Amino acid sequence: MSEVTFTFELPSDSDGYVTFECPFCEAEFKLSAAEYQDDEKPVDELFCPYCGLTHNKDHFYTKETIAMAQEVAQNYMIDQINSAFGKMAKNINKSKFLKMSFKPLKKGNVRELKERDTTEEIFKCKVCGRTEKVIYCAGFSKVFCAYCGVDL
Ligand SMILES: [Zn+2]
Ligand SMILES: [Zn+2]
């Protein structure tokens, strides 16, 4: 089987920021879509602005985003199965001996991700110049740059 790549549009808020979630502390933060997808400065790893731990950027997608991706992938599979079985049924029905009827599988609804505008503060990193939005609350005394991990 050949590999299938899905591309997703991550929803962004009114300022063009996309929500990410730390795989360690599960806190959410936002990064500018333009900076995150900047080809000149490709991003491989992200730092959690709150706990400062780092991981591959793929681990920072929110649970909602992952669920949406699974739904899109599942619908793709259903399409494939429907078309494969549809063809098979046609071929079988050409012969006089076998009859096959096929009822296509129904596709599930893909959730719509909506970006909420919450109260966050925008931080700009002095080292790399990129920005992030963090939900600033009393529990965190430090904020780290999501790109280079420095203490902001
Ligand atoms: Zn964290
Ligand atoms: Zn930085």
Secondary structure elements and pairings:
Blueprint: E1 17-21, E2 28-32, H1 33-36, E3 45-47, E4 54-56, H2 63-94, E5 121-124, E6 131-134
Antiparallel strand pairs: 1-2, 2-6, 3-4, 5-6
Bound molecules: zinc ion (2 copies).
Structure description:
This protein has 152 residues and is an alpha+beta fold. It has one domain (1-73, 113-152). Helix content is 24%, strand content 16%. The chain contains two helices and six strands; from the N terminus they run ββαββαββ. It has helices spanning 33-36, 63-94; strands at residues 17-21, 28-32, 45-47, 54-56, 121-124, 131-134. The strands form two sheets. Strands 1-2-6-5 form a four-stranded antiparallel beta sheet. A two-stranded antiparallel sheet has the order 3-4. The chain starts with 16 loop residues before the first strand and ends in an 18-residue tail after the last strand. The mean pLDDT is 87. Bound molecules: zinc ion (2 copies).
How is this structure best summarized?
This protein has 152 residues and is α+β, with helices and mostly antiparallel strands. It has helices at 33-36, 63-94, and strands spanning 17-21, 28-32, 45-47, 54-56, 121-124, 131-134.
